[in-house]
Amino acid sequence: MNVDRLRYHDSIADAVADLGKPEDIGKVFASFQRYLYEQVA
Predict the structure, then answer these.
(1) Domain that holds residue 24
(2) What is the distance between the alpha carbons of residues 35 and 7, in angstroms, rounded to a whole number?
(3) Which residue in 31, 37, 39, 41 has its CB near the most CB atoms, within 10 A?
(4) Total structural domains in the chain?
């Protein structure tokens, strides 16, 4: 289940108002995602 759908009840306008433009959200997620899979030395 998508967390955004739970929070915003499928309202793109509400999500954009809180999180920013979809392209900006995508850029932040893509740059953050590498830390999710990075192995700790």
Answers:
(1) 3-37
(2) 24
(3) 31
(4) 1
